[in-house]
Structures are given as structure tokens and as C-alpha cells.
Amino acid sequence: MQPHHPDDTPPPSWRQRPRPVGFEIAYTLDGDTLEIDTTRKVDRVRLAAVEQVRFVYAPSNVSSKGFKTQLRLSNGKSITFGNLSWRSLTDMDRDDARYHAFVSALTAAIAKANPRARFVAGKPFAFWLALAAVSALSLLMLVFFTSRAFLQGANTTGLLGLVLTAASFWQVRPMVMLNRPRELASGEVPDDLVPGRLPA
Question: What pLDDT, in 10s, does the model give residues 86-110?
Fold first, then answer.
């Protein structure tokens, strides 16, 4: 049954195909309930059951700017959706403005339905610390081998090392910087992890 809205204004919604092969999932906000239509079934989740909202940077491939919103429920289950939607095995679609609008409406409704809900940004601290350490170590190893290549006169290998170091830094830096763990105010939507805010 479709939610009834007297003023005929369509409720806030978001549609995403999270995998290259699979069904599109539709998320619709209906008052204090989130309706999730996976084509095969429709689930209705009470927003009062959301204990935590987490925003993360999670690119799907080398070139994508992928972001995800994760809801943790009181029964231990979680709901995750993002700003990228697969159109085919090689092509992705993104509509950051609609994504930001839906996430903003959803978080405001969650904060109202459960004022005790926790809002956080980035990865859990232990995970983020491990990510930062591994990333730094990998970059240091690349710099070391590149330096040795130049010192031994292997300039071609050294130049390749420089390219790899630069590419790795370009990939790793946003993963570490954007995913740094931090607490947010109730209902807050961080622009660096939920792109698409329209100018006022």
C-alpha cells in the first residue's frame, strides 16, 4: 500500500542499484517509518529503532567518489545505501543533490523519532587507525624503493615508482582524511561525506 500524503507532495525517496548485477532498491520516507522496496519484498523500518547513523567515504572503484550512509538498528541489523547506482557492469550513475536531500530528510526524521540516536562520521577508530597505519607504511615503502632505484641509476624504474607513489597518495589520502572518526550533532549531515548540498 502506498503512503498517503494529503497534499500530494511526493515523500522523500532515493533509488539505488548497489551492485552491477541485481535489483534496484527504493527507499521512501513515510513519516516515522523508512520503507525499503527491494522489488522482491517491502520492509518497513521504524525510525525510532535506529540507534546510530554513520557516514563514510567508500569509493566503488578507482575513479568513483562513493559515499555511504549506514543505519544501525536496535535489533543488531543494519541498513546501508550510497550515492552511486550501477547502470551496467561498467557505468555508474550519481545524483548528489537528490542524495543529499534524501539523507537530510531521513536524518532529521531519525533525530525526531529517537533523540538518543548517535550520529557519527568516518570509520570506527580502531579500523581507521589500522587503515592510516597500513596506508602510511605502503607509501613509505614506495618512497624507499623509488629512492633506491634512482640511487642505483635505474631511472626508468624510479620514474615508475614516482608515478605509483603519486597515484597511491591520490587514492589513500581521501580514504584516511574523510574517514577520520568524529562525533556529530543529532541530525547533522556532514557535507564532506554527503555531497550535493544545494547553495542557499
Answer: 888 778 888 999 999 999 999 999 9
- Which stretches within the chain are classed as H helix? 96-113, 125-151, 155-178
d(Cα 143, Cα 149) in Å, to the nearest integer? 10
Q: Are 120 and 56 in contact (CB under 8 A)?
A: no
CA distance 45 to 152: 62
Mean pLDDT of the residues in the chain: 88
How far is it, in rounded angstroms, from Cα 181 to Cα 162? Answer: 30
> What's the pTM?
0.83
**DSSP 8-state secondary structure symbol assigned to residue 48:** G
Cell numbers for 53 = 547513523
Residue 159: per-residue pLDDT: 81
Rg (CA), the chain: 21
Q: Order across the sheet with 25-30: list the strands.
A: 13-16, 25-30, 33-37, 42-46
Angle at the Cα of 1 (from 78 to 117), degrees rounded to 5?
30
Report the alpha-carbon distance of residue 129 to residue 127 in Å, rounded: 5
Q: Which helix (H) or strand (E) holds 152?
A: none
CA 34 from centroid of its chain's CA atoms: 19
Share of the chain above pLDDT 70, in %: 93
Question: Helix or strand or coil: residue 17?
Answer: coil
